[in-house]
Write a structure and sequence with these properties.
With 408 residues, this protein is α/β, with parallel strands linked by helices. The chain is built from 12 helices and 20 strands. It folds into 2 domains: 2-128, Rossmann fold (3-Layer(aba) Sandwich), CATH 3.40.50; 129-289 and 315-407, Dihydrodipicolinate Reductase, domain 2. Helices cover 31% and strands 26% of the residues.
Amino acid sequence: MIKAAVIGISGYGGTIYNDLMRERGNGLLEIKAATVINQDQEKEKCDTLKSIGCSLYTDYREMLSNEKIDICFIPTGIHLHEPMTVDALKAGVNVVVEKPAAATIQEVESMKKASAESGKFVAVGYQTMYAPETELMKKTIVEGRLGKIKTIKCLAMWPRTFKYYSRNNWAGKIAVNGKWVLDSPFNNALAHQLNMICFLGGKTFRESAKITKLQAELYRANEIQSADTAAISFYSDTGTKFLFTVTHACDESFGPEITVIGEKGRIDWSNTFTRIVTEDGKDQVHSSVHEELRKNLLSKVLKRVSDPDQFICNLDIAGTQTLCVNGTHESSEVNLIDSRFWYEKTAPDGSAVRIVRDIESVIRASFEKEKLFSELGVEWAKPGLEMNMANYREFPCGNRLLDFLSMA
Protein backbone atom coordinates (compact mmCIF):
# COMPACT_ATOMS: atom_id res chain seq x y z
CA MET A 1 0.00 0.00 0.00
CA ILE A 2 1.20 3.52 -0.78
CA LYS A 3 2.68 5.30 2.22
CA ALA A 4 1.78 9.00 2.18
CA ALA A 5 2.84 12.04 4.19
CA VAL A 6 1.74 15.66 4.28
CA ILE A 7 3.39 18.93 5.31
CA GLY A 8 0.70 21.17 6.77
CA ILE A 9 -3.00 20.53 7.37
CA SER A 10 -4.26 24.10 7.88
CA GLY A 11 -5.62 26.45 5.23
CA TYR A 12 -5.57 24.64 1.89
CA GLY A 13 -3.78 21.85 3.70
CA GLY A 14 -7.20 21.00 5.11
CA THR A 15 -8.30 20.02 1.61
CA ILE A 16 -5.30 17.71 1.30
CA TYR A 17 -6.08 16.25 4.73
CA ASN A 18 -9.61 15.46 3.55
CA ASP A 19 -8.25 13.96 0.30
CA LEU A 20 -5.89 11.67 2.18
CA MET A 21 -8.51 10.59 4.71
CA ARG A 22 -10.93 9.79 1.88
CA GLU A 23 -8.42 7.70 -0.06
CA ARG A 24 -7.31 5.96 3.12
CA GLY A 25 -10.95 5.00 3.61
CA ASN A 26 -10.93 3.65 0.06
CA GLY A 27 -7.95 1.46 0.91
CA LEU A 28 -5.58 3.22 -1.51
CA LEU A 29 -3.02 4.61 0.92
CA GLU A 30 -1.70 4.72 4.46
CA ILE A 31 -1.17 8.14 6.05
CA LYS A 32 2.24 7.41 7.48
CA ALA A 33 3.31 10.84 8.77
CA ALA A 34 2.35 14.50 8.96
CA THR A 35 4.24 17.67 9.79
CA VAL A 36 2.01 20.07 11.73
CA ILE A 37 3.61 23.13 13.30
CA ASN A 38 0.34 24.28 14.92
CA GLN A 39 -0.81 21.08 16.57
CA ASP A 40 -2.68 22.94 19.34
CA GLN A 41 -4.79 24.77 16.76
CA GLU A 42 -5.40 21.57 14.76
CA LYS A 43 -6.04 19.31 17.75
CA GLU A 44 -9.04 17.49 16.24
CA LYS A 45 -7.22 16.59 13.02
CA CYS A 46 -4.07 15.66 14.91
CA ASP A 47 -6.02 13.41 17.28
CA THR A 48 -7.60 11.69 14.29
CA LEU A 49 -4.22 11.22 12.61
CA LYS A 50 -2.69 9.75 15.76
CA SER A 51 -5.65 7.40 16.15
CA ILE A 52 -4.90 5.83 12.75
CA GLY A 53 -1.20 5.36 13.48
CA CYS A 54 0.12 8.49 11.78
CA SER A 55 3.32 9.92 13.28
CA LEU A 56 3.24 13.68 13.91
CA TYR A 57 6.20 16.01 13.51
CA THR A 58 6.88 19.72 13.83
CA ASP A 59 9.94 19.60 11.53
CA TYR A 60 9.38 18.27 8.02
CA ARG A 61 13.06 17.44 7.55
CA GLU A 62 12.95 15.18 10.59
CA MET A 63 9.86 13.50 9.15
CA LEU A 64 11.57 12.90 5.81
CA SER A 65 14.64 11.51 7.58
CA ASN A 66 12.77 9.18 9.93
CA GLU A 67 9.94 7.82 7.83
CA LYS A 68 9.76 5.51 4.81
CA ILE A 69 7.42 7.44 2.52
CA ASP A 70 6.33 6.88 -1.08
CA ILE A 71 4.69 10.24 -1.71
CA CYS A 72 4.64 13.57 0.15
CA PHE A 73 1.96 16.24 -0.29
CA ILE A 74 3.17 19.85 0.13
CA PRO A 75 0.28 22.36 0.46
CA THR A 76 2.39 25.20 1.88
CA GLY A 77 3.12 28.82 0.98
CA ILE A 78 4.45 29.55 -2.51
CA HIS A 79 7.90 30.56 -1.21
CA LEU A 80 8.26 27.17 0.51
CA HIS A 81 7.47 24.98 -2.49
CA GLU A 82 10.98 24.73 -3.91
CA PRO A 83 13.00 24.05 -0.74
CA MET A 84 10.49 21.54 0.63
CA THR A 85 10.13 19.76 -2.71
CA VAL A 86 13.90 19.51 -3.19
CA ASP A 87 14.35 18.18 0.35
CA ALA A 88 11.68 15.52 -0.22
CA LEU A 89 13.20 14.47 -3.54
CA LYS A 90 16.66 14.20 -1.98
CA ALA A 91 15.10 11.93 0.65
CA GLY A 92 13.88 9.66 -2.16
CA VAL A 93 10.23 10.67 -1.96
CA ASN A 94 7.79 11.49 -4.78
CA VAL A 95 6.07 14.86 -4.39
CA VAL A 96 2.67 16.42 -5.01
CA VAL A 97 3.25 20.15 -4.53
CA GLU A 98 0.39 22.63 -4.43
CA LYS A 99 0.06 25.14 -7.24
CA PRO A 100 1.88 27.11 -8.47
CA ALA A 101 5.02 25.02 -8.86
CA ALA A 102 7.15 27.84 -7.45
CA ALA A 103 7.52 31.60 -7.58
CA THR A 104 10.39 31.74 -10.08
CA ILE A 105 11.56 29.85 -13.12
CA GLN A 106 14.99 29.18 -11.57
CA GLU A 107 13.26 27.48 -8.62
CA VAL A 108 11.32 25.29 -11.04
CA GLU A 109 14.63 24.35 -12.70
CA SER A 110 16.09 23.49 -9.29
CA MET A 111 13.12 21.19 -8.62
CA LYS A 112 13.47 19.55 -12.05
CA LYS A 113 17.17 18.91 -11.42
CA ALA A 114 16.45 17.31 -8.04
CA SER A 115 13.71 15.18 -9.60
CA ALA A 116 16.03 13.94 -12.34
CA GLU A 117 18.81 13.14 -9.87
CA SER A 118 16.51 11.29 -7.47
CA GLY A 119 14.46 9.45 -10.07
CA LYS A 120 11.32 10.60 -8.25
CA PHE A 121 8.46 12.57 -9.79
CA VAL A 122 6.89 15.92 -8.96
CA ALA A 123 3.20 16.43 -9.70
CA VAL A 124 1.75 19.93 -9.36
CA GLY A 125 -1.72 20.24 -7.84
CA TYR A 126 -3.46 22.03 -10.69
CA GLN A 127 -6.68 20.09 -10.18
CA THR A 128 -8.30 20.97 -13.53
CA MET A 129 -5.35 19.33 -15.30
CA TYR A 130 -6.48 15.90 -14.13
CA ALA A 131 -10.10 16.33 -15.28
CA PRO A 132 -11.49 14.30 -18.22
CA GLU A 133 -12.80 17.43 -19.96
CA THR A 134 -9.29 18.92 -20.00
CA GLU A 135 -8.00 15.74 -21.64
CA LEU A 136 -10.85 15.93 -24.18
CA MET A 137 -10.10 19.57 -25.02
CA LYS A 138 -6.38 18.96 -25.44
CA LYS A 139 -6.89 15.91 -27.65
CA THR A 140 -9.35 17.85 -29.81
CA ILE A 141 -6.75 20.58 -30.31
CA VAL A 142 -3.67 18.40 -30.96
CA GLU A 143 -5.64 16.16 -33.34
CA GLY A 144 -6.26 19.27 -35.45
CA ARG A 145 -10.05 19.22 -35.22
CA LEU A 146 -10.09 22.99 -34.57
CA GLY A 147 -7.54 23.75 -37.27
CA LYS A 148 -4.76 26.23 -36.51
CA ILE A 149 -5.34 27.80 -33.10
CA LYS A 150 -5.57 31.58 -33.35
CA THR A 151 -6.47 32.65 -29.80
CA ILE A 152 -6.75 31.15 -26.32
CA LYS A 153 -8.14 33.52 -23.71
CA CYS A 154 -9.54 33.60 -20.19
CA LEU A 155 -11.44 36.06 -18.01
CA ALA A 156 -12.40 35.89 -14.36
CA MET A 157 -13.76 38.19 -11.67
CA TRP A 158 -13.43 36.78 -8.16
CA PRO A 159 -13.96 39.31 -5.33
CA ARG A 160 -11.52 39.04 -2.44
CA THR A 161 -11.91 40.90 0.87
CA PHE A 162 -9.41 42.46 3.26
CA LYS A 163 -9.68 39.24 5.29
CA TYR A 164 -8.32 37.28 2.30
CA TYR A 165 -5.15 39.37 2.27
CA SER A 166 -4.63 39.05 6.03
CA ARG A 167 -5.04 35.26 6.24
CA ASN A 168 -1.29 34.56 6.32
CA ASN A 169 2.06 36.35 6.09
CA TRP A 170 2.47 36.04 2.31
CA ALA A 171 -0.95 36.83 0.80
CA GLY A 172 -0.72 39.77 -1.59
CA LYS A 173 3.07 39.87 -1.25
CA ILE A 174 5.76 40.03 -3.91
CA ALA A 175 8.32 38.70 -1.44
CA VAL A 176 8.44 37.54 2.18
CA ASN A 177 11.40 36.73 4.44
CA GLY A 178 13.80 37.37 1.58
CA LYS A 179 12.04 34.91 -0.74
CA TRP A 180 9.98 35.60 -3.86
CA VAL A 181 6.26 34.86 -3.57
CA LEU A 182 4.63 36.81 -6.44
CA ASP A 183 1.17 36.19 -5.01
CA SER A 184 -1.62 37.45 -7.28
CA PRO A 185 -4.86 36.31 -8.91
CA PHE A 186 -2.86 34.74 -11.75
CA ASN A 187 -0.40 33.01 -9.43
CA ASN A 188 -2.83 31.75 -6.82
CA ALA A 189 -6.63 31.60 -6.98
CA LEU A 190 -6.75 31.68 -10.79
CA ALA A 191 -3.36 30.12 -11.51
CA HIS A 192 -5.27 26.97 -12.51
CA GLN A 193 -6.67 28.73 -15.55
CA LEU A 194 -3.43 30.46 -16.57
CA ASN A 195 -1.80 27.03 -16.47
CA MET A 196 -4.72 25.57 -18.45
CA ILE A 197 -4.52 28.02 -21.34
CA CYS A 198 -0.76 27.47 -21.59
CA PHE A 199 -1.34 23.70 -21.62
CA LEU A 200 -4.08 23.88 -24.25
CA GLY A 201 -1.67 25.79 -26.50
CA GLY A 202 1.02 23.08 -26.40
CA LYS A 203 1.93 21.27 -29.63
CA THR A 204 1.60 17.77 -28.16
CA PHE A 205 -0.62 16.30 -25.47
CA ARG A 206 2.05 16.33 -22.76
CA GLU A 207 3.50 19.78 -23.25
CA SER A 208 2.50 23.39 -22.78
CA ALA A 209 2.97 26.26 -25.20
CA LYS A 210 6.43 27.68 -25.85
CA ILE A 211 6.06 31.35 -24.92
CA THR A 212 8.02 33.77 -27.11
CA LYS A 213 6.86 37.27 -26.12
CA LEU A 214 4.66 38.82 -23.45
CA GLN A 215 3.21 42.16 -22.43
CA ALA A 216 1.27 42.75 -19.23
CA GLU A 217 -0.42 45.38 -17.09
CA LEU A 218 -0.61 45.03 -13.30
CA TYR A 219 -2.75 47.07 -10.93
CA ARG A 220 -3.84 47.19 -7.31
CA ALA A 221 -6.67 48.93 -5.54
CA ASN A 222 -5.90 47.13 -2.28
CA GLU A 223 -3.10 48.03 0.13
CA ILE A 224 -0.88 45.11 -0.85
CA GLN A 225 2.50 44.70 -2.55
CA SER A 226 1.33 42.70 -5.52
CA ALA A 227 -1.51 42.99 -8.03
CA ASP A 228 -5.21 42.37 -7.51
CA THR A 229 -6.03 43.13 -11.16
CA ALA A 230 -4.17 42.12 -14.33
CA ALA A 231 -4.26 41.85 -18.10
CA ILE A 232 -1.63 39.63 -19.72
CA SER A 233 -1.09 39.14 -23.45
CA PHE A 234 1.45 36.67 -24.81
CA TYR A 235 2.30 34.64 -27.91
CA SER A 236 3.65 31.15 -28.51
CA ASP A 237 6.07 29.93 -31.16
CA THR A 238 3.08 28.72 -33.22
CA GLY A 239 1.71 32.27 -33.48
CA THR A 240 -1.19 31.63 -31.09
CA LYS A 241 -2.24 34.70 -29.09
CA PHE A 242 -3.10 34.23 -25.41
CA LEU A 243 -4.99 36.69 -23.22
CA PHE A 244 -5.59 36.44 -19.48
CA THR A 245 -7.65 39.19 -17.85
CA VAL A 246 -8.63 38.94 -14.17
CA THR A 247 -9.45 40.88 -11.01
CA HIS A 248 -10.11 40.41 -7.31
CA ALA A 249 -11.17 44.08 -6.92
CA CYS A 250 -14.73 43.62 -8.13
CA ASP A 251 -18.33 43.40 -6.94
CA GLU A 252 -19.58 40.75 -9.36
CA SER A 253 -18.33 37.16 -9.19
CA PHE A 254 -17.97 35.67 -12.66
CA GLY A 255 -16.01 32.90 -14.31
CA PRO A 256 -13.43 31.77 -14.90
CA GLU A 257 -14.23 31.16 -18.56
CA ILE A 258 -11.83 30.03 -21.27
CA THR A 259 -12.33 30.30 -25.03
CA VAL A 260 -10.16 28.60 -27.65
CA ILE A 261 -10.64 29.92 -31.19
CA GLY A 262 -9.35 27.91 -34.14
CA GLU A 263 -9.71 28.29 -37.88
CA LYS A 264 -12.21 25.39 -37.99
CA GLY A 265 -13.90 25.49 -34.59
CA ARG A 266 -13.86 26.64 -30.99
CA ILE A 267 -14.00 25.51 -27.38
CA ASP A 268 -15.79 27.28 -24.54
CA TRP A 269 -14.99 26.10 -21.03
CA SER A 270 -16.39 27.10 -17.64
CA ASN A 271 -16.74 25.52 -14.22
CA THR A 272 -20.11 24.09 -15.26
CA PHE A 273 -19.76 23.01 -18.89
CA THR A 274 -17.30 22.39 -21.72
CA ARG A 275 -18.58 23.02 -25.27
CA ILE A 276 -16.55 21.89 -28.29
CA VAL A 277 -17.67 23.02 -31.76
CA THR A 278 -15.92 21.53 -34.81
CA GLU A 279 -16.74 21.15 -38.50
CA ASP A 280 -18.13 17.68 -37.79
CA GLY A 281 -20.46 18.69 -34.99
CA LYS A 282 -20.86 19.95 -31.45
CA ASP A 283 -20.11 18.27 -28.13
CA GLN A 284 -21.08 19.58 -24.72
CA VAL A 285 -19.90 17.81 -21.61
CA HIS A 286 -20.16 18.38 -17.89
CA SER A 287 -17.21 20.13 -16.23
CA SER A 288 -15.98 18.41 -13.09
CA VAL A 289 -17.10 19.90 -9.78
CA HIS A 290 -14.68 20.31 -6.88
CA GLU A 291 -15.14 16.86 -5.35
CA GLU A 292 -14.66 15.21 -8.75
CA LEU A 293 -11.55 17.31 -9.42
CA ARG A 294 -10.02 16.23 -6.13
CA LYS A 295 -10.78 12.55 -6.72
CA ASN A 296 -9.33 12.68 -10.25
CA LEU A 297 -6.15 14.35 -9.03
CA LEU A 298 -5.57 11.88 -6.20
CA SER A 299 -6.36 8.89 -8.40
CA LYS A 300 -3.81 9.88 -11.04
CA VAL A 301 -0.95 10.94 -8.80
CA LEU A 302 -1.31 7.77 -6.72
CA LYS A 303 -1.33 5.66 -9.88
CA ARG A 304 1.83 7.48 -11.01
CA VAL A 305 3.74 5.97 -8.06
CA SER A 306 3.71 2.59 -9.84
CA ASP A 307 2.99 3.61 -13.45
CA PRO A 308 5.56 5.94 -15.05
CA ASP A 309 3.30 6.41 -18.09
CA GLN A 310 0.45 7.91 -16.06
CA PHE A 311 -0.12 11.55 -17.04
CA ILE A 312 0.50 14.17 -14.35
CA CYS A 313 0.91 17.91 -14.45
CA ASN A 314 4.68 17.81 -14.23
CA LEU A 315 7.19 20.62 -13.78
CA ASP A 316 7.69 21.08 -17.53
CA ILE A 317 3.98 21.83 -17.91
CA ALA A 318 3.56 23.87 -14.73
CA GLY A 319 6.79 25.75 -15.36
CA THR A 320 5.20 27.54 -18.31
CA GLN A 321 2.73 29.20 -15.94
CA THR A 322 5.67 30.27 -13.76
CA LEU A 323 7.42 31.67 -16.83
CA CYS A 324 4.33 33.75 -17.62
CA VAL A 325 4.15 35.04 -14.05
CA ASN A 326 7.81 36.04 -14.09
CA GLY A 327 7.46 37.77 -17.45
CA THR A 328 4.36 39.57 -16.24
CA HIS A 329 6.18 41.09 -13.27
CA GLU A 330 9.11 42.04 -15.53
CA SER A 331 6.76 43.70 -18.02
CA SER A 332 4.79 45.82 -15.56
CA GLU A 333 5.22 47.39 -12.19
CA VAL A 334 2.19 47.10 -9.93
CA ASN A 335 0.36 50.36 -10.60
CA LEU A 336 -1.72 51.81 -7.76
CA ILE A 337 -5.23 52.71 -8.91
CA ASP A 338 -6.13 56.17 -7.61
CA SER A 339 -8.88 56.28 -4.97
CA ARG A 340 -11.06 58.26 -7.41
CA PHE A 341 -11.56 55.03 -9.30
CA TRP A 342 -12.55 52.64 -6.50
CA TYR A 343 -14.89 52.35 -3.54
CA GLU A 344 -15.39 50.00 -0.60
CA LYS A 345 -18.35 47.94 0.58
CA THR A 346 -18.96 45.31 3.22
CA ALA A 347 -18.91 41.73 1.98
CA PRO A 348 -21.25 39.01 3.33
CA ASP A 349 -18.49 37.77 5.68
CA GLY A 350 -18.37 41.21 7.34
CA SER A 351 -15.00 42.13 5.85
CA ALA A 352 -14.51 45.05 3.49
CA VAL A 353 -13.87 44.60 -0.22
CA ARG A 354 -12.36 47.27 -2.44
CA ILE A 355 -14.01 47.55 -5.87
CA VAL A 356 -12.65 49.30 -8.97
CA ARG A 357 -15.44 51.27 -10.61
CA ASP A 358 -16.73 49.66 -13.81
CA ILE A 359 -14.06 46.94 -13.62
CA GLU A 360 -16.54 44.31 -14.81
CA SER A 361 -17.02 46.18 -18.10
CA VAL A 362 -13.27 46.65 -18.46
CA ILE A 363 -12.55 42.93 -17.94
CA ARG A 364 -15.26 41.89 -20.41
CA ALA A 365 -14.12 44.40 -23.04
CA SER A 366 -10.52 43.22 -22.67
CA PHE A 367 -11.62 39.62 -23.17
CA GLU A 368 -13.98 40.26 -26.08
CA LYS A 369 -11.71 42.68 -27.97
CA GLU A 370 -8.51 40.81 -27.01
CA LYS A 371 -6.85 44.02 -25.83
CA LEU A 372 -4.97 45.16 -22.76
CA PHE A 373 -6.61 47.82 -20.59
CA SER A 374 -4.40 50.63 -21.91
CA GLU A 375 -5.32 49.65 -25.47
CA LEU A 376 -8.97 50.14 -24.51
CA GLY A 377 -8.25 53.70 -23.34
CA VAL A 378 -9.02 53.00 -19.66
CA GLU A 379 -8.15 56.19 -17.77
CA TRP A 380 -6.07 54.57 -15.03
CA ALA A 381 -4.30 52.08 -17.31
CA LYS A 382 -0.60 52.10 -18.19
CA PRO A 383 1.06 49.82 -20.78
CA GLY A 384 3.80 47.44 -19.75
CA LEU A 385 7.00 46.60 -21.59
CA GLU A 386 7.07 43.92 -24.27
CA MET A 387 9.23 41.06 -23.01
CA ASN A 388 11.17 38.53 -25.08
CA MET A 389 10.54 35.26 -23.23
CA ALA A 390 12.16 32.78 -25.63
CA ASN A 391 15.41 32.58 -23.67
CA TYR A 392 14.25 33.81 -20.27
CA ARG A 393 16.07 31.89 -17.53
CA GLU A 394 16.04 33.82 -14.24
CA PHE A 395 13.78 36.18 -12.30
CA PRO A 396 14.28 39.08 -12.08
CA CYS A 397 16.35 40.01 -15.10
CA GLY A 398 16.84 43.60 -13.84
CA ASN A 399 17.16 45.49 -10.56
CA ARG A 400 13.69 47.08 -10.38
CA LEU A 401 12.16 44.40 -8.17
CA LEU A 402 15.11 43.68 -5.87
CA ASP A 403 14.01 46.21 -3.23
CA PHE A 404 11.08 43.92 -2.42
CA LEU A 405 13.50 41.28 -1.13
CA SER A 406 15.07 43.66 1.36
CA MET A 407 11.74 45.00 2.62
CA ALA A 408 10.17 41.55 2.98
